[in-house]
From TrEMBL:
GO terms for biological process: mannosylglycerate biosynthetic process. GO terms for cellular component: cytosol. GO terms for molecular function: magnesium ion binding; mannosyl-3-phosphoglycerate phosphatase activity. It comes from Affinibrenneria salicis. Its EC number is 3.1.3.70. InterPro entries: HAD-like_sf (IPR036412), HAD-SF-IIB-MPGP (IPR006381), HAD-SF_hydro_IIB (IPR006379), HAD_sf (IPR023214). This is Mannosyl-3-phosphoglycerate phosphatase-related protein. The keyword Zinc does not apply.
Amino acid sequence: MADLATQLIVFTDLDGSLLDHDTYSWEAASAWLSRLKRLQIPIVITTSKTAAEVTPLQQMLGLSDMPFIAENGALVSLPGWSSHADYPRKIFNADYPQICRLLHNLRDKQRFAFRGFSDMSDEEVADVTGLDLAGAALARCREASEPIQWRGDAVSLAAFRLCLRQHQLELTQGGRFYHVMGCGISKGNAVNWLKIQYEGQQQKKWVAIGLGDGPNDVSMLQACRYAVVIKGQASQNVQLPDDFNGEQFWTGASGPAGWSEGLNYFLRELII
């Protein structure tokens, strides 16, 4: 099984998974982080956060040379892959300025009632998200998606969705905000794209383990051979499709302790 270790790749959500939801500590996962890094197993952060938010977290976690997936799969950052055609990052849809221009035009012409991060200052984003000012500034450094606060009714929301689809964009609902991004964008599609890039580089198949705690992690988990659903505030709403042909494990612990529990379960099964 030693060869399998060189082919293993880990995709992980951050908040409530690798990081504690409240304290952002990863202490309970530190032993497994060290072991995976020692075995040179890629650990790919897969998150709704922006690249600007992920980069300092990568540095703190000791993962600065690893690719990561940001903005719910709208982009993949490729640090250390300078020879790759998409270096330094792959954006899967229209870029942020294009998305914002379209949204502002639709709002002006159709009178849709919403407010996006591009309409807000750092102070306003901090107020609606609970982030500090520095964190709000990083959250506003967007490249491929726009969070919005919807202020209209259900009928106008349906009309808004239709207008977006006519421009190859779609609306997904998060915890506090709706997110506007390209049609077909998901964490899972980004995971599949990145696995293909790894296979192209090393000419072998990669076995993927995914770890997440919420509904927006389902596509990521579905794209992996082994899926770890970490106990959390929204984990009861996680449901993998009936046609998921991998293996799944639901943890009893939450946050980084659950992250380690999931790896213990599957990596022990793989005898790594």
